[in-house]
Amino acid sequence: MDSPSVSEPVLRVRGLTQRYGDLTVIDGLDLDVPPGTAVALVGPNGSGKSTLLRCLTGLDSAAAGTVELDGRPLDERAVATRRALAVVTDDLDFFPDLSVVEHLDLVASAHGVDDVHAAVDEVLSAIGLSAQAGQLPGTLSSGQRRRLALATVFVRPRRLMVLDEPEQRLDTDGVAWLGDRLRADVDAGAALVFASHDPDLVERVADTVLDLGAS
Ligand SMILES: Nc1ncnc2c1ncn2[C@@H]1O[C@H](COP(=O)(O)OP(=O)(O)OP(=O)(O)O)[C@@H](O)[C@H]1O
């Protein structure tokens, strides 16, 4: 059967190990993330949260172990992977000459969203960027740029969201909104892995907490 089974994990990780020189950051990690489930990665600075997320998304190659998305080895270049996987990391990359609304139009169109204008309008309004729709990324505040990065996740179909400290630079209301939105997405069937230093967000969103600082 070609379509992924609902009972199978969206993400399956086995024996994942990552090293930088002599430093072993991730050591033989196993993880299953079924649909409709959120996993939070917690732990102090340097405990390996971003390293793990980079390996999960194919941004970095692990030293050992396997990462499967919907039962197939994760290949970040494959169309199926790009359709399923929505990622926000620390590095916010935008086209300097495309406005907020043009970025979201582009992402929604590239992912085959049916009614691009309706989807973009909904996300702009929900994430609080309607008034900035015509602005270029360079003219946004740092929190607004972060909102734009998150909006690129919410404007497209996704089976798995991988988010590195999504609360970064958001104001209090923004973090509260984000918690509700992520939890609603997960309840609707998405899988989520996110790193966070915000205990309230972790409590609000996560089904499972993985403490990378615990030995
Ligand atoms: N490219 C690299 N080369 C060498 N060491 C690295 C590299 N990337 C990360 N590290 C090291 O790996 C360890 C884990 O870093 P990582 O960024 O994954 O931590 P983190 O848990 O995400 O931290 P933070 O909470 O500060 O975001 C750190 O000791 C870091 O110095």
From TrEMBL:
Key words, A-Z: ATP-binding, Nucleotide-binding, Transport
Every ABC transporter domain range: 11-215
SMART domains on file: AAA (SM00382)
InterPro entries attached to this UniProt entry: AAA+_ATPase, ABC_transporter-like_ATP-bd, ABC_transporter-like_CS, P-loop_NTPase
Domain of life: Bacteria
A Pfam family per the record: ABC_tran
GO MF term set: ATP binding; ATP hydrolysis activity
Keyword Transport: yes
PANTHER family: ABC TRANSPORTER, ATP-BINDING PROTEIN
Family per similarity comment: Belongs to the ABC transporter superfamily.
Protein name: ABC transporter ATP-binding protein
